[in-house]
Amino acid sequence: MQHGTIVAGFGGQGILFCGHVLAQAALIEGREVSWMPSYGPEMRGGTAYCTVIVSDRPIGSPMVDAADSAIVLNPPSLAKFEPVIARGGLIVVNSSLVEAIPARTDIESLLLPCTQIAREAGDDLLVSMVALGGLIARRPIVGQDSVHAALRDLLSGKKAHLIEADSAAFERGYAAGMRGSTQELDNRVLVDVWR
Amino acid sequence: MTVQLTDNRRVIYRRPDALQDKSTHYCPGCGHGIVHRLVAELFDEMKLTGRTIGVGSVGCSVFAYEYFKTDFVESPHGRAPAVATGVRRVQPDKFVFTYQGDGDLAAIGTAEIVHAAARGENITAIFVNNGIYGMTGGQMAPTTLLGQKTTSSPLGRDPVLAGYPVPITEMLALVPGTAYAARGSVATPQLVGRAKSLLKRAFELQEAKAGFTIVEILSNCPVGWGMTAPASMEHVEKDVIGTYPLGVLVDRAKAGPESK
Amino acid sequence: MSAMATTQLAPKRVLMKGNEAMAEAAIQAGCDAYFGYPITPQAEILELMARRMPEEGRVFIQAESELGAINMALGAAATGARVLVSSSSPGISLMAEGMSYMAGSEVPMVLINVMRGGPGLGSIGPSQSDYFQAVKGHGHGDYKVPVLAPASIAEAVALMADAFELAERYRTPVIVLADGTLGQAMEPVSPAYRDPARLQTDWNLTSTNGEREPRVVRSLHLRPEELQEHNTHLQAKFAQIAEREVRFATERIEDADIVIVAYGTAARIARTAMERGRSKGLRIGIFRPITLWPFPTAELVAATEGKRGILTVELSSGQMVEDVRLAIEGRLPVHFLGRQGGVLPSPNEVLEACRKMVAP
Predict the structure, then answer these.
(1) What is the pLDDT of residues A16-45, one digit of tens each?
(2) Residue from B19, B90, B98 whose CB has the most chain C CBs within 10 Å, to mutate
(3) Mind listing the domains of chain C with CATH numbers?
(4) ipTM metric
(5) Residue B13 domain-assigned?
């Protein structure tokens, strides 16, 4: 089993952290994993993304040419990464910020109002954790418990007070992802949570 | 070398122990030999030889490691202050000096000398300024005087074409990490004695870990300048000192720590 | 999907960024002093060292330039200290001078190059376009230095201790040649660090203490005959390194029809291509040099005997492929696939190139 995920959005939406949590969760499960960020000027304000590969065998390329899933938290990321998702793959779209609906008919699209859910959970900055919850609900790449354990690992020391909110945001995203109803629209497989 | 004398004669002049028993490669009349001697005398007097690691440079003094009885590391051209930084940081109890000419220190090595000073490295730069690239055949140096003819300024240094002499030691004196910056000369016996006292102060401040120390010594190049040795020393005294005034440019240890 | 059961198999692994993992491995390998200057994509090495070296009571300096850094390294290493320097391609060019001096004066030191695209300022993307510079001598003069090329972060960690050991055993600078991908990625690392034993030395500068003759660390030998003798000595040392220190790895090479030769990140991409090819009946194997110099020439010849052909994959316009061709000497077709400037070839591109080699 090997699963490649891309997490993309604005710098400040917790993109790299979200990928790190997923990677750490995989590590906790004893899996092979690689996390590869976009780096350089992109880090400083523009669209950021990272690639996480979780596998049960040694990982080849740390980049993916056909992603098994993607989280896109802003409109430019949808345009950039919708085309690179493998047939049968999943795209988690932050429908709070991205009005467009993925056009691909050969992938599953989870339309999740991540920013809105994050706000309800207490902070817009939790947006990527909500999205990760949605992703794991539809594609159990790692166990939920592993994600919570990863958050405890990564948010140690001075950041420990954030664990609870991040875990709660992940759970809200997970619950929303689980209850989303599958619809078909022009042959597209949409899982719409709110609309 | 210890000289045993059985009668009541007194040794008034001999090779310092810190110098090897070797003829130098320097041209007749060159001031490097005098500066070497001053440094070696101070090594003897301050008992530094056994604790010293010298850092060489590129230029006429490239063979300095042949003459001092200390460990020595060679540096690429201009990089001696960086090399000395590396030596001193991992050997904090040693005495570390660089021996550099004006092309090495004031042209190709300006970044290294400025930042060694800025970091307040506990090293002493012995900077021998004779206003010319002697080793490579007498080309113009950053410190060449205005109007001075060299093999690469055949009509004399023209500031429009070649800029102005660089007062690098004054520049270094501005840097807070510089504990001591001074300029002496070996143009006359009196100035030789004065130069030694400047070097001594610098060495003492390095021993006190006061920060970066530099002593510039105005010297000569009879061959490169096309002069006899006496005429070249006279030229230093009469002309060069006018562009590069002698004296202590900064002594922050004396001024107190608040000036740092 | 439930892999929780395997948790206990590797309890100690931690996720580390390549740059940080190499830096920490150097510290654990007993690095006494680090000198660096900020440049993407290796700044995390400098940053980790800035924090960790003072914690360990060791020397850290952010130099005024890469020239400053490499020459501080020269000075510190001349005293026998274990010294690390790191940079990325443009900075490595500035360090060519110091590397030549250290090779000439036989000063051990480890230099990490986290390569980015060139020439010139180029890009900050991952690249392998400094292969020639690393393996053919870097600076002026007749010399080579061992070049170690990790293909994963775990391997990079292991190679740091090996690099110091090689440097000290042969009194030579050693280059660890990584690229932006390895520097920036995070992968699991088992913190099984190694601190190589210190050798007895009689050349390093510790000051005489009045007890021995002065030592000089220098590359200057002005008499041509003397320099020739010194160079002959250096060449004999290089021959010894070439004889003893070749390292490489192979994957599924025994039954392979096509052998991909690649190092570092390119070898990782090749592995994905190999898996995809194998699943479609295309028998691909991988030969991965770990020492780029000394290049595993005889080993490559032996491993590829009777194969249909070789595909060399690099993140460059074709540099290592020259050494592959020199090794193969026309025995087999040697093809090349490269991407430049920070672009990575996709596994499918590599696979397609392999497929073309066996197509009628």
Answers:
(1) 999 999 999 999 999 999 999 987 554 455
(2) B90
(3) 12-207+234-244 (3.40.50.970), 248-358 (3.40.50.920)
(4) 0.92
(5) no
